[in-house]
Input
Amino acid sequence: MNIYVGNLNYKVNGDRLKSIFGEFGEVESAVVITDKFTGKSKGFGFVTMNNDDDAQRAIAELNGKEFDGRQMVVNQARPREENR
Output
């Protein structure tokens, strides 16, 4: 399952994101989205977990939880829409 993680502290990187979600099960990948020009975090990322039950538990436990001074938004990622 692909999970959207928003409202992240700009200092959080993919490794930290992976460790947070790793408490709930195996994490296939974790990436924080960065600006392509500056390389700075945009404050959100995506986590992929193979086990849907673990992913649902992580979403339930982490949505709204404070992490590094910011309240995370965690939910199932929606498919990317094409730009017009």
Summary: The mean pLDDT is 94.
